[in-house]
Amino acid sequence: MFISFQLCKPNEPGVFIGKILPNNPSRAFLGYVDKGASEKKIVRDIFKKGDAAFLSGDLLVADERGNLYFKDRTGDTFRWKGENVSTSEVEAEVSNAAGYRDTVVYGVEIPNMEGRAGMAAILDPESQVDLTKLADTLKETLPSYARPMFVRLLNKVDMTGTYKLKKLDLQKEAFDPNVIEDSLFYLTPKGQYEKLSKEVFEQIKRGEIRF
Predict the structure, then answer these.
(1) Most CB contacts within 10 A, which of 90, 172, 189, 202?
(2) Is 34 a residue whose pLDDT tops 50?
(3) Are the beta carbons of 87 and 95 closer than 8 angstroms?
(4) Is 154 exposed, middle or buried (0-12, 13-18, 19+ CB in 10 A)?
(5) How far is the CA of 38 from the CAs of 1, 41, 51, 89, 156, in angstroms?
(6) What's the chain look like in SS3?
(7) Among 5-9, 135-139, 193-197, which stretch is predicted with the lowest mean pLDDT?
(8) Is the alpha carbon torsion for 7, 160, 157, 195 positive or negative?
(9) pLDDT at 94 over 90
């Protein structure tokens, strides 16, 4: 895949990349435990042949004086019900409502529906998350389009080399109870989270349960 790079102008948002200097310990890229995932974070031949850098995933803006300001994370948004949803904002609200537990939010596709519905994976090995409280709290703190349609309570968690939850892996598994052993729940029209069984999953696929 060919990727073209160009320097951003002042006040123009761009992706922050870090130049890799293999012989300089402070500029080396140690990467993740998964070597394949590490390679996806590295870009080569950026401004000259043979150079390399890592993609931070952060969108920054530099002003005329060179001061840097954080703007957003790349890929950390999804569109649902015609609205753009920031996963970081939803993660913060879900984590607070779940007792400040580790939380990852991502968009998942629902058959025959446009956009991606929100899904939250919450680390809950001791099964202590109160789903009724979670639903009621999120109803007060998030607009309807930003509330997770699905919840996955994680018994354990796989981390990247930088101790971040593996969002991409969770997103690929989506809300399929045929491949997920963790407890799954969906947001009903009444605004409460109920068990997502294999039967419910098939009803969602057939469009008998809509969101």
Answers:
(1) 90
(2) yes
(3) no
(4) buried
(5) 16, 5, 16, 26, 22
(6) CCCCCCCCCCCCCEEEEEECCCCCHHHCCCCCCCHHHHHHCEEECCCCCCCEEEEEEEEEEECCCCCEEEEEECCCEEEECCEEEEHHHHHHHHHHHCCCCCEEEEEECCCCCCCCEEEEEEECCCCCCCHHHHHHHHHHHCCHHHCCCEEEEECCCCECCCCCECHHHHHHHCCCCCCCCCEEEEECCCCCEEECCHHHHHHHHHCCCCC
(7) 5-9
(8) positive
(9) yes
How far the first Cα of the chain sits from its last, in Å, is 36
Which structure tokens are listed for 19? 């130049």
Non-local CB neighbours of 149 within 8 Å, separated by 6+ positions: 110, 117, 118, 119, 186, 187, 211
Q: What is the pLDDT of residue 123?
A: 92
Higher pLDDT, 88 or 59: 88
- 196-202, long-range: CB within 8 Å, 24+ apart, which pairs? 196/150, 201/175, 201/176, 201/177
Position of tokens 């300001």?
69
| Residue pair 32/163 in contact by the 8 Å Cβ criterion | no
Distance CA 154, CA 127 (A): 9
In the numeric block, the tokens 């939850």 are attached to: 165
Give bridge partners of residue 103 from the DSSP assignment: 122
Report the C-alpha gap between 46 and 66 in whole angstroms: 21
- Predicted TM-score (pTM) of the model is 0.66
